[in-house]
């Protein structure tokens, strides 16, 4: 593929969010370019889409060449994640060229995961789910992808599927201090608890009748977490911390910390309630 200043952002910057892009700065009069170009084209086909080749004719795109400080050709700049990450000038032997590419190219499971994340950003949930499942088929121990899949399943209210996926997480995630896992476990636990709890209005009435009823207050917080009503849940959890830090082995504070992870995309809310919790604790 040939690119120009007008299409460079789409062809290179945006495309490198999905797979590495090698930009080959060349010219028709350049003898070494005629050696390197076909080698790159052959390897691009061999790798089957795991990276892309984009060519820039420096005679026709002097502004691009100047921007990347191309003083000698052929000159190759590698992009990943929307930014330049490596480069070389001249013709590399094929073995060295392969080694250069291998440093850039993610393994197939990571490539599927990257595509899934891009689909999530675009709101293409089913596409994202397919790619996450493909990543896990290639690498069953890829916990980061599995956590993304669990979160997606919960968002789609497919709780049983999410629970089954959680059981497949490795001990390094479930037994370590992984904030994402702790947050999702809190959400799963809240959903489990909510199925056996009285209706929310009954729990609210119980708390109103007896504000010191910490069991009812904790149940109400779990019911609210299951509905992703994080702010009222935090209100009840903070009240538990104020009244009795020892309740259920400090469950009020611990659950608040997990809710902070669940609500990570609402930084103002999290910052506000972190301050409130710190004021109570210290």
Structure commentary:
The protein is α+β, with helices and mostly antiparallel strands and 282 residues long. It has three domains: 8-104, Glutaredoxin, CATH 3.40.30.10; 108-173, Alpha Horseshoe (Serine Threonine Protein Phosphatase 5, Tetratricopeptide repeat), CATH 1.25.40.10; 194-281, Tetratricopeptide repeat domain (Serine Threonine Protein Phosphatase 5, Tetratricopeptide repeat, Alpha Horseshoe). Helix content is 62%, strand content 9%. It has 15 helices and four strands. The protein has helices at 8-14, 31-46, 62-67, 94-104, 108-121, 125-138, 143-155, 159-166, 171-174, 179-196, 200-209, 214-226, 230-243, 251-262, 267-281; strands spanning 21-26, 52-57, 75-80, 83-89. The chain has a four-stranded mixed β-sheet, sandwiched between helices. Helix 7 packs parallel to helix 10 (179-196), helix 11 packs antiparallel against helix 12 and helix 13 runs parallel beside helix 15. The longest helix has 18 residues, at 179-196. The radius of gyration is 26 Å and the shape is elongated. The model has no long low-confidence stretch (mean pLDDT 90).
Topology diagram in text:
Elements: H1 8-14, E1 21-26, H2 31-46, E2 52-57, H3 62-67, E3 75-80, E4 83-89, H4 94-104, H5 108-121, H6 125-138, H7 143-155, H8 159-166, H9 171-174, H10 179-196, H11 200-209, H12 214-226, H13 230-243, H14 251-262, H15 267-281
Parallel strand pairs: 1-2
Antiparallel strand pairs: 1-3, 3-4
Helix pairs in contact: 5-6, 6-7, 7-8, 7-10, 10-12, 10-14, 11-12, 12-13, 13-14, 13-15, 14-15
């Amino acid at each position: 593929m040939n690119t120009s200043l007008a299409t460079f952002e789409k062809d290179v910057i945006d495309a490198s969010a999905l797979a590495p892009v090698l930009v080959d700065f060349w010219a028709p009069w350049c003898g070494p370019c005629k050696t390197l170009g076909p080698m790159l084209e052959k390897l691009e086909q061999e790798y089957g889409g795991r990276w892309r080749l984009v060519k820039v004719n420096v005679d026709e795109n002097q502004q691009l060449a100047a921007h990347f400080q191309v003083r000698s050709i052929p000159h190759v700049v590698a992009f990943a994640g929307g930014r330049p990450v490596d480069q070389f000038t001249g013709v590399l032997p094929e073995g060295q060229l392969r080694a250069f590419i291998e440093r850039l190219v993610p393994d197939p499971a990571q490539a599927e995961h990257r595509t899934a994340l891009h689909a999530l950003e675009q709101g293409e949930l089913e596409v994202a789910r397919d790619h996450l499942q493909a990543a896990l088929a290639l690498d069953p121990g890829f916990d980061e992808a599995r956590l993304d899949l669990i979160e997606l399943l919960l968002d789609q209210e497919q709780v049983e599927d999410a629970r089954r996926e959680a059981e497949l997480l490795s001990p390094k995630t479930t037994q370590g201090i992984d904030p994402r896992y702790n947050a999702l476990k809190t959400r799963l636990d809240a959903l489990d608890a909510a199925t056996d709890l009285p209706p929310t209005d009954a729990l609210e009435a119980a708390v109103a009748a007896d504000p010191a009823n910490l069991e009812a207050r904790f149940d109400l917080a779990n019911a609210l977490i299951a509905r992703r009503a994080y702010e009222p849940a935090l209100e009840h959890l903070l009240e538990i911390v104020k009244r009795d830090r020892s309740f259920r082995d400090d469950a009020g504070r611990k659950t608040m910390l997990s809710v902070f992870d669940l609500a990570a995309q609402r930084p103002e809310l999290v910052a506000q309630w972190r301050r409130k919790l710190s004021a109570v604790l210290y």
